[in-house]
Specification:
5 strands, two-stranded antiparallel ribbon, alpha+beta, single chain, three-stranded mixed sheet
């Protein structure tokens, strides 16, 4: 059995963990996930419960996203916690000189006002033309880091469905 080489955590990751523990968002112990697995830690984004904490959290996300070199042109925040995270990260990215739109989904479609199940920046045909299977692989909705793979797939499906619906609708 081969082992993977360990990678030393970088300063930003260490600072993020310290901050998360300090505000009580990251706790260690024995926790059961929604999927029924045991976890040695619990991360509750609800612990970032004021403007200063949320602003600092957004700074971590934005800096990591920029440093990653990942090509992106929009943020998506799955309901519910992801909505606030996507919005705050979009604000921080703009503050850092990278202004990008964001969108989020509703748990239930709205039949009045702007209607639908998605809110925020519109997706247009140019996005649909650029969408390929390899784009879905790195999709990482901004949400609790312990989100399940199924949850991330659902977020990807929401975005793809919106894009395909727009492509199939007459202008």
């Amino acid at each position: 059995m081969t082992s993977r080489p360990s990678r030393a955590p970088d300063a930003l990751a260490q600072e993020f963990v310290r901050f998360s523990v300090e505000v009580g968002a990251l706790r260690f112990g024995e926790f059961r996930t929604k999927a029924g697995r045991l976890s040695p830690y619990f991360f509750n984004a609800g612990g970032f419960d004021d403007g200063a904490k949320l602003g600092r959290l957004a700074s971590f996300y934005a800096r990591r996203l920029i440093d990653s070199g990942l090509a992106f042109d929009m943020l998506f925040g799955p309901a519910y916690k992801g909505i606030v995270l996507a919005a705050s990260v979009a604000i921080e990215l703009a503050r850092l000189g990278r202004n990008v739109p964001y969108a989020y989904n509703r748990k239930e479609a709205k039949d009045h006002g702007e209607g639908g199940s998605l809110v925020g920046a519109p997706l247009d045909e140019s996005l649909g033309a650029r969408l390929r299977a390899e784009h879905l692989a790195p999709l990482a909705p901004i949400d609790d880091p312990r989100g399940t793979a199924a949850y991330r797939r659902e977020a990807a499906q929401i975005l793809v469905a919106r894009c395909l619906n727009m492509l199939g609708s007459p202008a």
